[in-house]
Amino acid sequence: NAGVTQTPKFQVLKTGQSMTLQCAQDMNHNSMYWYRQDPGMGLRLIYYSASEGTTDKGEVPNGYNVSRLNKREFSLRLESAAPSQTSVYFCASSEATGGTQETQYFGPGTRLLVL
Amino acid sequence: QKEVEQNSGPLSVPEGAIASLNCTYSDRVSQSFFWYRQYSGKSPELIMSIYSNGDKEDGRFTAQLNKASQYVSLLIRDSQPSDSATYLCAVGYTGGFKTIFGAGTRLFVKA
Questions:
Q1: Confidence band of B1 (pLDDT split at 50, 70, 90)
Q2: Tens digit of pLDDT for each residue in B50-91?
Q3: How far apart, in whole angstroms, are the C-alpha atoms of residue A93 and residue A105?
Q4: Any chain A CB within 8 A of the CB of B103?
Q5: Which residues in chain B are contacts of A99 at CB distance < 8 A?
Q6: Which of B39, B97, B98 would you mutate first to test chain A, the one with the most A CBs within 10 A?
Q7: Mean pLDDT across the stretch B88-110?
């Protein structure tokens, strides 16, 4: 099993450009998440998807959109990149179904630099 | 605003010593608690999860939870240089899908 995979690993964008970060999991998990990690700030939730067909905002959703394409795939889109979106982005999945939060399994991350 | 607080460190301990990592959280309805380890440039990976008051041991790791004091800790016995990493405390909330992460504590184990 590959677990959680993310593409690309690295990306450099110019301000105003758009891009989509891809995430896929092969653990048959219901829930998927997108986080960003900045120095000294830990992981902050951008969006999550509790199940196929549903998405909800996290702590820092502004400037991002998501799509839960199917149970395996959850993508994050930056429509007009800004330097403040320079960060490391992690996708994660878990078995959580709403009652209790469960262990999250993380992808390797995407390092994004916006110039 | 739900918060999870950790001392950012760095915490430096000699090889073979006990490392003690602490975490406090602000919301009393928190239900599940996790410690993740993150090596530099890598993604977080689960070390321990704990759901009820008391201690939970797994090898050299012990998680301790005190819901009355809103406090969770991680003890690492016989610390090894390979334990040098950032340790993230995470708190999950009842009936929700959100987990709030602390900023992490950097641990250095000196050989």
A1: low
A2: 999 999 999 999 999 999 999 999 999 999 999 999 999 999
A3: 5
A4: yes
A5: 95
A6: B97
A7: 88
Residue B32, chain A, CB below 8 Å: the answer is yes
Amino acid found at B67: K
Distance, in Å, from the CA atom of B57 to the CA atom of B24, rounded to the nearest integer, reads: 20
Read off the pLDDT of each residue in B16-36 and give the average, rounded to a whole number: 91
Q: Which amino acid is at B85?
A: A
Q: pLDDT category, A101, cuts 50, 70, 90?
A: confident
Query: Are A2 and A15 spatial neighbours (Cβ–Cβ below 8 Å)?
Result: no
What average pLDDT does the segment B15-20 reach?
Answer: 97
CA B49 to chain centre: 9
| H-helix segments, chain A | none
CA A31 – CA A112 distance, rounded (Å): 24
Residues 25..54 of A with a Cβ closer than 8 Å to B: which? Answer: 31, 33, 35, 40-45, 48, 50
Is B85 exposed, middle or buried (CB count within 10 Å of its CB: 0-12, 13-18, 19+)? Answer: buried
According to the model, what pLDDT value does residue A39 have?
A: 85
pLDDT at B7: 87
DSSP secondary-structure letter at B102?
A: P
Type of residue found at A33: Y
Q: Are B90 and B36 in contact (CB under 8 A)?
A: yes
